[in-house]
Structures are given as C-alpha cells and as structure tokens.
C-alpha cells in the first residue's frame, strides 16, 4: 500500500510514520508513505500556496494549481490503469464520514493520495475536478487535514497483509468483528485488590470463549446497540441478549425468542 500525502506541514508526519507498527511496516517494505510539500509546487519566490477568498470572508483558501500539479506529478510514474485505481482523497469535515466499511474499501486500492487542507479550506475545484473521495473523520472541525490523513493511513494499514501480525488478529477487533471486543486483562491477576475474573484464570477454554462472547455482547448492547442490527448472532447470542432484556431488533424476535415483557 502506497500513501502519498499532500500537505503544507510535512514535519507533522515525522513522528507517526517513524514509530510503532507503521514505522516497522515501512521498514519492512509493506507500506510506503511519501510526504509531499504543497509549497514545492508553487511558482513564486514566497511559495504562496493560499490566497484570499473570492467574494470576501475570513480565512485563506488553498490554491488549486499547486495541488493539481502535485497530484499529477505524484501519479505520473504509475501506469494509466493504476492511476485510475488510485483514490484521490480530499480530507474535509464535509465529506463522507469515515467508518470501517470505507476503510475496507480504501484498503483494496493499490495506494491513496491524501490531500490535507488548512486555514479556511481548499479551492472547490479540487473537490469537484480532482478528488475522487471527500472524507471526514468525524463531526468536528480540525485545524488541518494532517491528523485526518494519519487516521486514514493507520486504519487502512491494518488491512495491508503483514502489517498486523497474526498474534494481533484484526478480525477480533471491535467494529471489524461486528461487535465491541470483550475486556482484556494481563498480569498481575490482583492489582491493589482489583482482580481478574476467575474464568480467565481457569484454563477452561470453552468457558473462556463463552465468557468473552457474552462480555462482548453485553458491552455492545450497553455502548453501541446499533451494531447488533447487523451483527452475525447465533441463537445462543440472541438468547443471551434477550436475557439482558434487549428487544431492540426485529431479528431478536425471530426464531421463537419473545420479548421479556
Ligand atoms: C479549519 S478546516 C476548514 C473547514 C471549512 N471551513 C468548512 O467549514 O468545511 C481546515 C482543514 O482541516 C481539515 N479538516 C478539518 N476537519 C476535518 C474533519 N472532520 N475530517 C477531515 N478533515 C478535516 C480539512 O482538510 C480542512 O480543509
């Protein structure tokens, strides 16, 4: 997976792409992250990448020319067919909200171009005539697109083969599995009187699996009941949820399970 990031602040990426899982994946050649300074595609001695808004208004707007040139230059080494398969993503609070479904869609591409806006935003022609995707990482406004780009790089990388080791199976993660994950514990088993549930110390794998599944269902019901609508639930799962008094989804009432009331 190749990430190409257009930004006015290349130094913002120095830490994140060097450390942890991402840094190791880059060293092993599983990922590449190219940081492109938008200013290097400006044509005046001041490196002017932004300008006043037509029509007046607060805040500067990123100019279209350096961004169009930078994207064209970035994709030019790729064969035409690959170029068309490259999502060109404009980070924007106005875009489609990022979720696991979108992460999985992006992860199937050979790479991504990520355009980080700043100040008041980016000239609209970038969105209408250059970007293939307009993505928001949530309903709040960031100062710039850099953190949003890092979120996308991190989330998409987890689905690049080899980046996450088998020991940390992404399919067991919250959301990816369709539910929230069960609680996790490590040593010590007793920390200032805060103890680990006995079942986890029992060595009884079937009971541990059942406890984890039930805690996962309980936690999902408490924190994200919306996920249960599309989760892959067995009859035992449904019976367990019904026992918790949950009658919120129609599928729960199928297969003979009645409301608790
Ligand atoms: C201060 S914001 C501009 C917001 C713009 N005035 C608007 O109302 O849509 C500057 C830049 O930060 C990035 N940004 C801000 N919030 C974001 C979000 N929730 N998701 C993705 N990018 C975001 C975008 O690249 C945006 O161009």
Automatic annotation (TrEMBL):
Instruction: Tell me the GO molecular function terms.
Output: tRNA (guanine(37)-N1)-methyltransferase activity
Main location (coarse class):
cytoplasm
Q: Which CDD domains match?
A: TrmD-like (cd18080)
Q: Which InterPro entries match?
A: Alpha/beta_knot_MTases, tRNA_m1G_MeTrfase_C_sf, tRNA_m1G_MeTrfase_TrmD, tRNA_m1G_MTases_N, tRNA_MeTrfase_TRMD/TRM10
For this protein, the record's HAMAP family field holds:
TrmD
What interactions and quaternary structure are annotated? Homodimer.
In terms of PANTHER family, this protein maps to:
TRNA (GUANINE-N(1)-)-METHYLTRANSFERASE (PTHR46417:SF1)
The EC number(s) attached to this protein equal: 2.1.1.228
Q: Name one GO biological process term.
A: tRNA N1-guanine methylation
So what does this thing catalyse? Answer: guanosine(37) in tRNA + S-adenosyl-L-methionine = N(1)-methylguanosine(37) in tRNA + S-adenosyl-L-homocysteine + H(+)
UniProt name for this protein: tRNA (guanine-N(1)-)-methyltransferase
Keywords annotated in UniProt: Cytoplasm, Methyltransferase, S-adenosyl-L-methionine, Transferase, tRNA processing
Q: Does the keyword Coiled coil apply?
A: no
Q: Which GO terms describe its cellular component?
A: cytosol
Look at the named UniProt entry and state the broad enzyme category this protein falls under.
Answer: transferase
> Entry's Pfam families?
tRNA_m1G_MT
